[in-house]
Amino acid sequence: MDYITTTLGNLLQQTAFVNLTWGNFVMIGVAFIFLYLAIKKGFEPLLLVPISFGMLLVNIYPDIMLTIEDSSNGIGGLLHYFYLLDEWSILPSLIFMGVGAMTDFGPLIANPKSFLLGAAAQFGIYGAYFMAIFMGFNDKAAAAISIIGGADGPTSIFLAGKLGQTEYLGPIAVAAYSYMALVPIIQPPIMKLLTTEEERKIKMEQLRPVSKLEKILFPIIVTVVVCMILPTTAPLVGMLMLGNLFRESGVVGQLAETASNALMYIVVIVLGTSVGATTSAEAFLKVTTIKIVILGLVAFALGTAMGIVFGKIMCKATGGKVNPLIGSAGVSAVPMAARVSQKVGAEADPTNFLLMHAMGPNVAGVIGTAVAAGTFMAIFGVK
User: Fold this and answer.
1) How far apart are CA 100 and CA 94, in angstroms?
2) Alpha carbon separation from 332 to 90, 122, 124, 147, 237 (Å, rounded)
3) CA 109, CA 284: separation in Å to the nearest integer?
4) Are 314 and 115 in contact (CB under 8 A)?
5) pLDDT band (50, 70, 90) for residue 228
6) How does DSSP classify residue 207?
7) How far is Cα 84 from Cα 87, in angstroms, rounded to an integer?
8) DSSP letter at 251?
9) Which residues contact 368 (CB under 8 A, 6 or more apart)?
10) Distance CA 152, CA 158 (A)
11) What pTM does this model have?
């Protein structure tokens, strides 16, 4: 009888029910909300499903993120090994390669002025940097947090790891990817607030055709110029442009297909689940996390607003030839932000097609966010 009692007691102690805290239940509830948004509402399910499931797993079984140092047998938890690939900047760089292989840079090449809109949208990053310092974060932590303003999860993870801000990496990554997924909710109210109905109805001229030679030379030239000025951007800008060169060269179709599909999806699974697994109740439910989430939202909203404001300036300067809505696509969420520009423009006029015009600032935003990260690394002397 004692044996049965002891055995049942041991089994009971091993269940998650006995070991869960109220914080774990809160985070499990957040995971369910994210799953609902991804599956029912369709908010970027490729991001939210793995992130929310990683969140669910770590709050039921914390040892799935057990570090090698804390392990009694020298073997870490499964998702800890996934997470190391984030810390080592491997997964963010591979994501950039996939984005490059998936994305047509033609709209940016056809309309180089789009670079200005992408640059304007980066204002949110630098604004958030000073706000984070004001709220008590050190300069490196403030820099890592500020990249959330570009709505760029991979770059946020990359910079946090390079600057040694691993204690904030989880909240930063979750905030960045959450705002990427929630672009269709966050951006439209800002876009409508800062533009008039007449501005939203502006139709833009069709972009000029871009030659194959231009598309091949563009990633090579950008890599040389940007990486010569800021060598620290090479892991991100270099991989982005390499992926695009796979796509445009026309001689490595297998590599382009692999980078944009199989490899991209594998990396998203590993990166998403590991990012979600950083959100254990113990690590996530802190005042600093709330600050990071708020700063990220403010930065993202500010970046969106500044892109639109600069779009309005370009609209005036060109005599009404630029629809200010495309400025909101200057954040780095590709292609979600460009689709939102199209959607809001089509609501004002169903015959208005802004998607290709918005892709220019969108691609510029990806490059701009990587450059911002490289600038911070250069400032702090990090290679």
Assistant:
1) 10
2) 19, 9, 12, 10, 13
3) 42
4) no
5) very high
6) P
7) 5
8) S
9) 115, 118, 119, 121, 122, 150, 330, 332
10) 10
11) 0.90
